[in-house]
């Protein structure tokens, strides 16, 4: 593997003791577009594999994973579930047991979208992890409504991670920043909040802005929007308490970003396992 440069944006930092915290990740790894020049997949793939190995999340939602990327990333032997043609990949560590899993095709939009649901057990604790890739614009609401309907009956807490194609700006900002009109008007995160989900980044960092796009530019050359520019999200129901959240900025040895998105990682404290039933008289 090639050496990896890893920068982070995290006001609270990564918890020093992670043994009892579930780490989840979302990362749009960018499909292998032949027009990407120096950012083509063949220049990124070794550093990408090294980053995922180093980060070592228990559960990861990866988007835009094409066939050749799947074959490369599957070489490490971690459990995977892939949702073509939407190219969403659910990846987990070996210490996570899968109780049930399904793929949900999401409606609307010019591109196929999907989500992968996995009911999991980790260290005696259960929950459901959703790896998703949503559309920008009005289709997102219908996609979230379908996800919420499908989650009914699955074990809680529910953790949804993915590329939402959505910023957090209010409706009246849409005409001001025409370049981002579609994503600014996206209400997917608001609908999840209304359903009781908590934005992990905001829970840990408050109103501190974050940005998860790179444009394949190194950090010093990047245009940073003057607002909270996260389009990659991790949200969870209140039973899962976010302890730390960071937005990484991994670079290749050539100082190029691994993707046009930045990965987001969150560490959750989950509800404890149910007490073991005792025999009468003990």
Description:
The chain is of the alpha+beta class and 282 residues long. It has a single domain, classed as Deoxyribonuclease I, Chain A (4-Layer Sandwich). The strands form two sheets. It has a seven-stranded mixed beta sheet. Helix 1 links the parallel strand 2 and strand 3. The longest helix has 15 residues. The N terminus and C terminus are likely disordered.
Shape: globular
Mean pLDDT figure: 86
Oligomer: single chain
Adjacency order of strands in the biggest sheet: 1-12-13-2-3-5-4
Please report the first level of CATH classification, the CATH class. Alpha Beta
What is the fold-level CATH name, i.e. the topology?
Answer: Deoxyribonuclease I, Chain A
Question: If helices are DSSP runs of H or I spanning 4 or more residues, what is the number of helices?
Answer: 6
Low-confidence stretches: 1-8, 275-282
| Biggest pleated-sheet summary | 7 strands, mixed
Question: Which terms summarize this structure?
Answer:
alpha+beta; 13 strands; 7-stranded mixed β-sheet; disordered N terminus; single chain; Deoxyribonuclease I, Chain A; 282 residues
Structure summarized in a few sentences:
The protein is an alpha+beta fold and 282 residues long.
Blueprint of the fold:
Elements: E1 5-9, E2 22-28, H1 41-55, E3 59-63, H2 67-73, E4 80-83, E5 88-92, E6 97-106, E7 113-122, E8 125-133, H3 139-151, E9 158-163, H4 181-184, H5 188-194, E10 198-199, H6 200-205, E11 232-236, E12 241-251, E13 264-269
């Amino acid at each position: 593997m090639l050496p990896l440069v890893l920068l982070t944006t995290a006001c609270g930092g990564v918890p020093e003791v992670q043994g009892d915290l579930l780490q989840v990740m979302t990362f749009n790894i960018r499909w292998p577009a032949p027009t990407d020049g120096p950012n083509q997949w063949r220049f990124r793939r070794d550093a990408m594999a090294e980053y995922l190995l180093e980060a070592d999340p228990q559960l990861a939602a990866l988007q835009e994973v094409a066939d050749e990327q799947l074959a490369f990333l599957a070489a490490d032997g971690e459990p995977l579930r892939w949702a073509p043609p939407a190219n969403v990949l659910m990846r987990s560590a070996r210490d996570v047991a899968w109780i049930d899993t399904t793929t949900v095709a999401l409606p609307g939009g010019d591109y196929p979208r999907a989500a992968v649901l996995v009911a999991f057990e980790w260290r005696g604790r259960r929950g459901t992890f959703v790896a998703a890739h949503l559309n920008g614009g009005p289709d997102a609401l219908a996609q979230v409504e379908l996800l919420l309907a499908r989650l009914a009956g699955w074990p809680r807490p529910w953790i949804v991670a993915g590329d939402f194609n959505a910023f957090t700006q209010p409706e009246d900002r849409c005409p001001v920043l025409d370049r981002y009109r579609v994503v600014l008007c996206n209400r997917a995160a608001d609908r999840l909040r209304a359903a009781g989900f908590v934005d992990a980044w905001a829970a840990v960092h408050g109103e501190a802005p974050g940005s998860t796009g790179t444009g394949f530019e190194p950090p010093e050359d990047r245009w940073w929007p003057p607002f909270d520019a996260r389009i990659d999200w991790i949200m969870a129901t209140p039973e899962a308490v976010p302890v730390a959240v960071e937005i990484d900025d991994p670079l290749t040895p050539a100082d190029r970003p691994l993707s046009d998105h930045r990965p987001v990682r969150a560490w959750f404290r989950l509800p404890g396992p149910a007490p073991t039933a005792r025999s009468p008289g003990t």
